[in-house]
Amino acid sequence: MVLSRSVAAFTAVATTLVGVTACVAPSIDPEFPALTDNIWELQQIQMNNGDLLIAEPSANYTAEFADDGQVFVQADCNRAIGQFTETVDGQLTIQMGPTTLAACPEGSIAPQFLQALNNANFYFFQDSDLFIDLKFDSGTMQFSAASIPELVGTTWQLQQIQFNDGALLVAEPPENYTVEFLEDGGLVVQADCNRGRGEFTTTDDSRLEVSPIATTRAACPEGSIGDEFVQSLNNSAIYFFQDGDLFIDLAFDSGTMRLSAD
């Protein structure tokens, strides 16, 4: 995971750029990443009044710009969707929309992160990092491109299913509850003492749809959560990655599965 840069290093960059960012255009050099081809992890927000907000951990503060003009944001314990527009000279406008309303831990900078995104004005790249200058010359956000795991080609072990009614199902042991998404659109499931197969589709905005999974019908030991695992996979709605784990939100905002790579 990319670590936050030192305050001194960032201040040196910011000092160099003050007053000249309006003359800098976003690079289209192939050595630099593209705005829409990455998940961007916030490193820090340097406000021009001297305040410095560090994203800890950076993987909890991300922005993904999609080709259709949507931006998908993780702001610590909350997620949000917005719209963005960009121009060839680097002008960037972001309008955040719906946001979940979980109470994040003390020390979270989620509100400041969302507000900064709403105040986006101009973007550019330096040393492969993304910088977004804010309106009214109020500050600059710095992002680094995240290392994105692959949904396909990995055997994912279930860790837990957290339902929004408070119920928590823990996979014990995780290696008895796995799913593998295949290149041909098929998926293979181990649900404790049973095995199953199905099909899946994904979209550019991380939606995940799983067809009904056909499984064997062995009677698993008491305490098995095999049936709940299969039912949750059938109810998949949206997937995302955090700290190398795969998270699958369930339909009707009913819960979330967390899986780790085998």
Structural category is mainly beta
Rg on CA atoms, Å? 21 Å
Q: Which geometry do the CA atoms define?
A: elongated
Which topology of the largest domain does CATH recognise? Answer: Lipocalin
Strand content: 35-45%
Number of domains: 2
Distance between the termini: 19 Å
Question: Which class of the largest domain in CATH terms?
Answer: Mainly Beta
Helix content: 10-25%
Give the ordered list of helices and strands. HEEEEEEHEEEEEEEEEEHEEE
Give the beta-strand count.
19
Please work out how many helical segments DSSP would assign: 3
Explain what the structure shows.
This protein has 262 residues and is mainly β. The protein folds into two domains: 7-145, Lipocalin; 155-261, Lipocalin, CATH 2.40.128. The protein is 11% helix and 45% strand. The chain is built from three helices and 19 strands. The protein has helices spanning 7-17, 110-118, 226-234; strands at 39-47, 52-54, 61-65, 70-75, 78-86, 92-99, 120-126, 129-134, 139-145, 155-163, 168-170, 177-181, 186-191, 194-202, 208-210, 214-215, 236-242, 245-250, 255-261. Strands 10, 11, 12, 13, 14, 15, 16, 17, 18 and 19 form a ten-stranded antiparallel β-sheet that branches. Strands 1, 2, 3, 4, 5, 6, 7, 8 and 9 form a nine-stranded antiparallel β-sheet that branches. Strand 7 and strand 8 form a beta hairpin. The longest helix is centred in the N-terminal third of the chain and has 11 residues, at 7-17. The radius of gyration is 21 Å and the shape is elongated. It starts with 6 loop residues before the first helix and ends with a strand. The model is unreliable at 1-30 (pLDDT under 50).
